[in-house]
Structures are given as C-alpha cells and as structure tokens.
Input
Amino acid sequence: MFALTFLTPNPRLPSPLFVAKSFPESALSRRSIAFSSSNSYHWRPNLRFNGFKLKSATAPENVEGGDPESGSLVKGLKLGGMFGVWYLLNIYYNIFNKQVLRVYPYPATVTAFQLGCGTLMIAIMWLLKLHPRPKFAPSQFTAIVQLAAAHTLGNLLTNVSLGRVNVSFTHTIKAMEPFFTVLLSVLLLGEWPSLWIVCSLLPIVAGVSLASFTEASFNWIGFCSAMASNVTNQSRNVLSKKFMVGKEAMDNINLFSVITVISFILLVPVAVLIDGFKLTPSQLQIATSQGLSVKEFCIMSLLAGVCLHSYQQVSYMILEMVSPVTHSVGNCVKRVVVITSSILFFKTPVSPLNSIGTATALAGVYLYSRAKRVKVKQNPKTS
Output
C-alpha cells in the first residue's frame, strides 16, 4: 500500500487534486495507474506532475481495526493478568490481615484503618484524574448511604470472623453467599430462582455444615459474624441492583469508591466507641509484644489496607469487562485459591471430613455459577 505526499514550491497553486485532473489523458497514460481486482491503487514512485512530486511510503495494513485474532489475544492476556492480580492481592490481604488481627484484637479499628487507606487511594485517583469523578443526584444519596452501611458491616464482620477462626474456615462459610443472594433477591426484588439454581444451593449448605462440624478452630462468634457478613455483603449487591439503575447510575468503580469513602466516615466514630482509641504507642507495644515489632505491625497493617482496596477495585474493573456469571465463576476460583494458600501458609490442620465439606461447598458454588449461566441463556432479557 502507498501513501501519497504532494510537494509544491508555490503555496498559491491550485490543489493537487485539481491539477492532476487537469492533465490530458495521454499525459497520464504514460504514467499509468494500475487498478487491481480489489480496487487498490499502486502508484509508481518518484513521478512528477508539473511541479508536484509523488513520494511512495509504506503504510501498515488494517490501521483501523487491526488483526481481530491478535486483538482478542491481547484482551485475553489482559483479562487473565487481571484475574491473577485479583487472586494474588486476595492471598496477601488475608495473610497480612490475619497476622495483624492475631496480635491486635480490635477488628473495628483495623477495618476503619483499612477503609482509610482505601479512601486515601481514591482521593489520589480522583486528584490525578486517573478516573472521572462521580456525579450523582441528591435523590441517590439515601440509596448510596444504605449501600455504604451494608459495605461497612460486611467488612467489619469479616474481620471479626478472621480474628476468631482460621482464614480457611471463614472463607468456607463465605461460600454461602449464593444462598443469601437467592434469598434476598426473592425477598427484596421478587426474583424467583430456577430449579437448577435451587439444586445447586444444596451442596453449598451441606458442605458448609460438614466443614463447620469438623472445624478445629470453630467459634460461635467467628461463625456467626462470617454468616452475618454474607447477609450484609449480598444485601449491598442486591440493593445496588435495585437502586442504582437509570441514566443517573454511576459506573462500578465510582460507585465502589463513593461507598468506601462513606463507609470510612461511618466507621471511625463507631470504632472509637467500640474499641476506644487504640492507636497509642503503649497500645501498639502491647500488641506487638506477641511476636511482631512495631515496624512489622505498621507495615503489615498498611499492606493489608492497600491490598483490600486494590483487590476490590480490580474486582470491579473485571466486572466491567466480563459478564456477572463469568465474574461469579472467577470468584469461586478465588475462594479455592485463598483457602488453599491460607492452609499452606498458616499450616492449618485439616481433617478429611473438613476437606470434604469445604470441597463440597466450593463445588456447589461452581454449580451455582453454571446454573446462572443456563438461566441467562434461556432468558437473555432478564439477565
């Protein structure tokens, strides 16, 4: 392919196209233009037309669209990398967070600090214009505060559970999320599940029950708080589907960012009321007397906060690139990765029955994702 460059010493001359058309046909025939069957033009280089010079230059093919196969490959690699980052940040968050909560048993303060880290990262994102700032109507504020309250409780209750029981057990209980999604969708939205979805919930309930009965670190506070976090987290998801619709709806990233900032504002006074002010040097010395230095404690707390916000941000970015069903399958795989990595890192003792219960619950979560895919294909308008 050749691009045409016209050079003329006199800027007052008529346009090159006009001059080229003014030549007699015999003059042009000596410097013929060959037409291929595909109607592409092959110009001979270094030709002159009364002061105009035609210079040949190569141009890349498929400038506009590019190769579809290479484009899909790049998109697939990007998506795979984002899933890998999502899983890796989850692993590090749970490891750092568990180590902090072991020596510092104040989950409300820890959660407020983590939300504060997220708020700072969001402020930097908006100040540097890495993402457009949110715009929402005053009528949406009440709904957003409700979502933020559910988000706050979900994070707080998860940390209460992580401080009481093993990481693997907390995430096994959180495999019950699909059950509460279906229940709350029926109660709040009037959406009834298909038979396949109901059947997929049975192994989830059975697996979590078996894992709970055989869990060495079982604790009622840890169990109930993890179960309650399922309710609050899924309430947030269902409420976001109910309220954040229409032309004024924000994108996922800004919605998550606004919720995080409001959650931080809501939780700080609650944390002071529940735990008191526990960030004094004397309190830190008491906390770190159990195996961590003050420096290690501060670094792990900061990394846990950064990882928490980052993995949630990446999760929302992935959700904008794939369907909710694909995201649900990825979340199921994430649960497996987190449970396995925490068992290996903390050397958690696991009985055969406990392993069977955990595996059964996770298999149920996968079946739930498949059942949702079947429903989406049968009713594309309702998905």
